[in-house]
């Protein structure tokens, strides 16, 4: 039994006329009759009552038709799912992101991706840069948004967003009234910073910036996530140098100041496995690259 036998049967069952069914199937009437006979022979029961003027389904034919129609619907669904999967339009992705990405590019990425590919669900995990690299190595994550640089050849990495650095001060700080900030004035301030292992690129940039201003920051407290750093600033535990998009956090008790000195841009990069073959992952990569051109 082949799929064409079932298609011939369904068409004849709908038309109940060999001539019209053959015309719909673009074959001659005798081969259609022969194919139906072969199908009945293989099934071991008759599908149609035939007279010179009339063709009717047998009781077994009626039951068989319902089952075959269900098979055909499932087949069409399978074809559709296969096509959508091959185009990266359905499935699930695991995406990691550094906490600060939630205040700049992540909302835009999610909105854009959902509008373009609504059939793909995204599982989000807030992870530090070093955690994302570990998850990618272990195959637990598909795409990451992290702080470069990344020096492992097994990954593809592309910068998608850059921003300036700002100083976060407690609202009651003596320097909070200044419109912008000379970093030298922070030489004796306690700093809140994250451990270097979490994002060495950003950490080294902040340390270098302070050293160019003539001092090494006195780290009074370490925190893993950017929002925790800002909360500790609000608690008057110290000051911090943070990416400019952290202003979007709008934490009560914190003010943000631009830096008088020219500061280098800090970047967020997208990372994925270099040998990636999943159409769904590659579709996300493509959409993010296109969106990054607008930022």
Explain this structure:
This protein has helices at residues 3-15, 18-25, 29-43, 59-86, 106-116, 129-138, 200-212, 226-234, 279-292; strands at residues 48-50, 55-57, 91-97, 120-126, 143-146, 155-163, 165-170, 180-181, 190-193, 218-222, 240-243, 254-259, 266-273. It is α/β, with parallel strands linked by helices. Strand 1 (48-50) and strand 2 (55-57) form a beta hairpin. The chain is rod-shaped and about 105 Å long. The relative contact order is 0.15. The mean pLDDT is 92.
Supply the key terms.
single chain; 9 helices; 295 residues; rod-shaped; 5-stranded mixed beta sheet; alpha/beta; 13 strands; 4-stranded mixed beta sheet
Query: What percent of the residues sit in helical stretches (DSSP H or I)?
Result: 40-55%
Overall 3D form: rod-shaped
Count every helix, treating DSSP H or I runs of 4 or more residues as helices.
9
Please give the order of strands in the largest beta sheet. Answer: 4-3-5-13-6
Mean pLDDT across residues = 92
Structural class by helix and strand composition: alpha/beta
- Identify low-pLDDT runs: none
Distance between the termini: 58 Å
Number of strands: 13
> Strand content of the residues, in percent?
15-25%
Mind summarizing the main beta sheet?
5 strands, mixed
Return the string of H and E elements: HHHEEHEHEHEEEEEHEHEEEH
Radius of gyration: 32 Å
């Amino acid at each position: 039994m082949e799929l064409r036998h079932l298609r011939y049967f369904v068409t004849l069952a709908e038309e109940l006329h060999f001539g019209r069914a053959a015309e719909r199937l673009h074959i001659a009437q005798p081969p259609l009759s022969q194919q139906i006979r072969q199908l009945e022979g293989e099934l071991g029961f008759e599908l149609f009552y035939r007279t010179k003027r009339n063709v009717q389904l047998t009781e077994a034919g009626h039951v068989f038709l319902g089952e075959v129609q269900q098979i055909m619907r499932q087949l069409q669904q399978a074809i559709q799912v296969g096509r959508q999967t091959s185009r990266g339009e359905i499935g699930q992705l695991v995406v990691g992101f550094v906490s600060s990405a939630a205040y700049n590019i992540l909302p835009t990425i999610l909105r854009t991706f959902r509008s373009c590919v609504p059939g793909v669900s995204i599982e989000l995990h807030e992870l530090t840069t070093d955690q994302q690299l570990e998850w990618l190595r272990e195959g637990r994550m598909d795409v990451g948004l992290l702080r470069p640089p990344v020096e492992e050849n097994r990954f593809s990495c592309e910068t998608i967003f850059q921003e300036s650095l700002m100083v976060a001060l407690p609202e009651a700080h003596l320097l909070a009234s200044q419109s912008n900030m000379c970093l030298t004035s922070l030489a004796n301030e306690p700093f809140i910073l994250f451990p270097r292992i979490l994002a060495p690129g950003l950490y080294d940039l902040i340390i270098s910036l302070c050293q160019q201003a003539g001092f090494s920051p006195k780290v009074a407290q370490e925190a893993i996530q950017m929002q925790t750093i800002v909360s500790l600033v609000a608690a008057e535990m110290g000051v911090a140098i943070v990416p400019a998009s952290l202003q979007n956090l709008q934490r009560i008790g914190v003010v943000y100041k631009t830096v008088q000195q020219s500061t280098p841009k800090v970047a967020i990069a997208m990372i994925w496995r270099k040998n990636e073959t999943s159409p769904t992952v590659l579709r996300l990569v493509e959409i993010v690259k296109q969106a990054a051109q607008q930022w």
